[in-house]
Amino acid sequence: METTKIAALDRISELKAFDKRKAGVKGLVDAGITQLPRIFHDSPSNLANPKPPSSDLLHLTTIPTIDLEGRVFKDESKLKNTVDGIRDAAEKWGFFQVVNHGVSLDLLERMKDGVRRFNEQAPEVKKQFYSRDFRREFVYTSNFDLYTSSAASWRDTFSCYMAPNPPKPHDLPAFCRDVMLEYSKQALCLGEFLFELLSEALGLNPNHLKEIDCSKGLRMLCHYYPPCPEPDLTLGASKHSDSSFLTVLLPDQIEGLQVLREGYWFDVPPVPGALIINLITNDKFISSEHRVLANRATKARVSVACFFTTGIRSNPRIYGPIRELVSEDNPPKYREITVKEFALHRSAKGLDGTSDLLHFKI
């Protein structure tokens, strides 16, 4: 027992020392470490990577890719086929990729470059943004759940609420200010379009999800995954499901994202120019668990996640299973809550490998 207490105290002191440096995992890489610090060592069960037997691959395959036709459908049949494809992907995977989504490839590349430039600038400049106070307009940190998770993950992140009240330009770092404002506007437009298609996929009026403010808030999280010296000992992001109505993820071409389905981890292969979509419902559409492997490449991996949520910001609206879809045969599985209540629960719980929804299950 005494040994366990000493080990716990040692871990806390190591976490505090890491946090106090305000340099994140990028700072460890810059320092030239060759061995992974103990605070990042994850358990073998969390690191396990079971793959389906070849006999199952035919029906499991990988997450679908949906062509959005530039957000302009030439006829009703194309729209119907797209809605049907989204419904099928959402029910079976909870994830799908979209191409021809209307966001220019140039903007996607500039957004990813902005993430790299912020993280690769001089440490003394970045430190002024480092914080664990997520009420700030712009926050740069490493592992929001650093002190509650069983193991730290190999990533740094900066985040900002971009809607409904976008930050003032001077609150954002010069390296990524303009592109964050531009990209968030495009992500909002795409999100509203996707909410229309998802509403139809649920058998609802196309404006239903927008009318209940699912597209009201947007929080942008920009992740930076430096090369890891011992990638078999840790993860870039541990198993979790997202806590937003919808997530639009911009990945780069370095693999790492995995989706859990039927007990197996499936790699999500990067598709040039594609965006990855993830969502949450009353279990009609799957809120899939996913994770990110530690980076094995020789250069940093980046991703930009746009979460459609008001998060911890004030929002009095109560959310629960959509009443039009609830019946005796499909009763509500979760109680009604505010977005802030859900977000605060996620913040306190961290990414511990269990679904945030379980806490609100009826």
UniProtKB/TrEMBL annotation:
The keyword Metal-binding applies. The keyword NAD does not apply. It comes from the Eukaryota. InterPro entries: DIOX_N (IPR026992), IPNS-like_FE2OG_OXY (IPR044861), IPNS-like_sf (IPR027443), Oxoglu/Fe-dep_dioxygenase_dom (IPR005123). Residues 216-311 form the Fe2OG dioxygenase domain. PROSITE patterns: FE2OG_OXY (PS51471). Keywords: Iron, Metal-binding, Oxidoreductase. Belongs to the iron/ascorbate-dependent oxidoreductase family. This is Fe2OG dioxygenase domain-containing protein. The lineage of its organism: Eukaryota, Viridiplantae, Streptophyta, Embryophyta, Tracheophyta. The gene is A10p005970.1_BraROA.
